[in-house]
Amino acid sequence: MDFSLTDDFSTLNPAEWNDLLAESIADAPFLRYEYLQTWWETRGGGEWPSSARLALVAARRAGRLAGIAPLFCADNRDGDPALLLLGSIEISDLLDLIVRPDDLPAFAAGLLDFLETLPLPWRVLDLHNLLESSPSLPALQTAARERGWDVRLEQTYHSPTIPLPGDFEAYLARLDKKQRHEIRRKMRRAEESAQAVRWYIVSDADALEAEVEAFLDLMAHDPQKAAFLTPLMRQQMRHACQAAFAHGWLQLAFLEVNGQKAAAYLNFDYGNRIWVYNSGLDRAFLDLSPGWVLLAYLLRWANENQRAEFDFLRGDEEYKYRFGAQDRFLMRLRLEKR
Question: Which of 288, 268, 271 is nearest to 92 (CA)?
Fold first, then answer.
């Protein structure tokens, strides 16, 4: 493989990048060209300093793009000069290398050799938010140990998910009887309410900007999320939504009560699964359980539209398991040169 380095997204072809991602070991929306490009513009909504340096590593075999390591260089949280995956750490829930399975061993080995030649101030390859089942983990650990590097692997976050049967009633039948009854009861109460309750998925491009702002305002009803939504983070969220909508994988859903937005979910409808990214709730409508009701509607939609999985992404909030999620974990792989 022939490896190259660039510090400019425009030197890589977006279609070629995304085509490779569709065949790669981890096809996630957080690895799409348009998502990572917007993430880099704001350094993750201000998570990283403007002094961070972009380090996109591409590998080709006979001219064909074979692998991408989307990296940047900055001091990590431990204060070490590091190379990290673009998207790290807080707002991109699943990251990885972009490489076809058959090319992974050669790419992992060649990548470590290539990184050692770079004129960048780094000592640690610090990779966050890799799924525990990622084949990158054993491939990189093997390559690192063969080169005498120090290897440290740690479990970091829960990342629960629901496999979907393709039928809402079949999905409900899998749940605990009490939980199944609770979901049906809350849906029925909303549908039979004297108040006008409706839900919808945003599809109008002309309304997108206003709908995104409405979602961010709903998020800000939660004091912790309000603190999270700095001006730069709001800009990042806007750009991510716009990019996802433009490329056909945004699922921004609202539940309204008497025309007022009571709950919302910002999801990605990508790769035959729903990725549950964030949510907002107006507590003035808690008597109708709008968050739970909207989530139930989205699960029904996902089953009816034959999505294979409803991925809750990072976090171990209790409600995820009450809706039937099965636990998985994200990992951090730290490789240090000797």
Answer: 268
Q: Which of 110, 129, 79, 63 is nearest to 275 (CA)?
A: 129
Structural domains in the chain plus CATH codes: 2-159+330-336 (3.40.630.30), 161-311 (3.40.630.30)
Confidence class of residue 338 from pLDDT cuts 50, 70 and 90? confident
Overall pTM surpassing 0.85 (yes/no): yes
The string of pLDDT tens digits covering residues 113-132 is 999 999 999 999 999 999 99
Residues whose CB falls within 8 Å of the CB of residue 105, separated by 6 or more in sequence, listed in order: 139, 142, 143
Decide the pairing of beta strands 260-270 and 273-281: antiparallel
Helix (H, G, I), strand (E, B) or coil at 213: helix
CA angle 284, 286, 288 (to 5 degrees): 120
